Amino acid sequence: MTAHRTALVITSIAAPNAVLRSFAEGCKTRGIDFVLIGDKPSPSDFSLDGCDFWGLPRQRTMPFNLAPLLPERHYGRKNLGYLQAIRNGAEVILESDDDNFPRAEFWGDRTRQHSTASFQGSGWVNLYRYFSEEPIWPRGFPLEHLQDPIPALPAITAKDCPIQQGLADENPDVDAIYRLIGKLPADFIQRDHSVSLGKGALCPFNSQNTTWFREVFQLLYLPSYCSFRMTDIWRSYVAVRICWENGWDVLFHNSTVWQERNAHNLMKDFADEIIGYQNNKAICERLNALELKPGKEHIGTNIISCYKQFIAMGLVGDEEMPLLEAWNADMDALLMA
After folding, report:
1. Which pLDDT tens digit goes with each residue over 4-28?
2. What distance in Å separates the CA atoms of residue 234 and residue 100, rounded to the nearest whole number?
3. Reduced to 3 states, what is the DSSP secondary structure of residue 167?
4. Taking the CA atoms of the chain, what radius of gyration do you get in angstroms?
5. CA gap 129, 138 in Å, rounded
């Protein structure tokens, strides 16, 4: 594991299960802070050695501007886990979910600098296809581009990658359409080199197996007043767009977890994802047209500019803006401390 102080952040309403126990044991062994954020249905007597659990009553004691504003029963409460991890001194944040088992490789060393096949100016590129021979695509990938030719891999170059998406085997993060018609379970091919998104290249990433370095912590924000199935996907669009302005790549690397997926109603997932199927391409066209400023000191204002586009499109509620302002204030206080 990286020599930087590291934290793992997960949100869950489950009692301690095999996944959470595996993460807790791995974190305790390696000196990693494990911050687990609960919600209204969480067991009141939750207890797991090696895990710092925050139920709703304890969350209400947090000294963050965002804490009293977040809606209950929403994945966006995970934002409090990020803030707490930073408050504890984290320089690297790992995130996953309570149905993803970590492999030994999950605990391997993490560095920002990578030799990677970096796509530049390619527009939409389905990065899952470089790890699979199946016609598979990530949740959030515009359906209009599924039939696009798969570009040849670019030359391997050295890139700064402060956001890193690990894949997940068995039940990877795909949309409801793929789950209804595609081949599952599915394991990804292990590649010698990673691939990455440079300026002008687009592919969604998720919150299932993701690494964030300190310089991009402000991009962790998950919106609350939008479709549950889109919150981490739309976050990824914002993050990728702002990374372009700073010369950062977003890395996709080999699977280091495998998922035993929690129970889902696929038709409900499909209904929740329709707003994405209809708007994902248009969202990114709007974001691409924005004039954003480079520099980490401008990340907060850039995030506001991006989410104003979502609000203008009617995809995120006006109620999101006070949360964003509270998040920016909390991040400014934590990152300057």
Report:
1. 799 999 999 999 999 999 999 999 9
2. 21
3. strand
4. 19
5. 10
CA angle 15, 16, 22 (to 5 degrees): 155
216 close to 295: Cβ distance less than 8 angstroms: no
CA angle 288, 201, 181 (to 5 degrees): 105
pTM: 0.96
Distances in Å between the Cα of 249 and the Cα atoms of 162, 164, 165, 197 are: 7, 9, 11, 5
CB distance 265 to 229 below 8 Å = no
Domains, the chain, ordered by start: 6-335 (3.90.550)
Amino acid in the structure at residue 101: F
The string of pLDDT tens digits covering residues 169-228 is 999 999 999 999 999 999 999 999 999 999 999 999 999 999 999 999 999 999 999 999
Quick one: which of 332, 331, 310 has its CA closest to 320? 310
Q: Is 307 helix (H, G, I), strand (E, B) or coil?
A: helix
Neighbours of 202 (CB within 10 A): 25
Work out whether the CA dihedral 9, 168, 163, 1 comes out positive or negative: positive
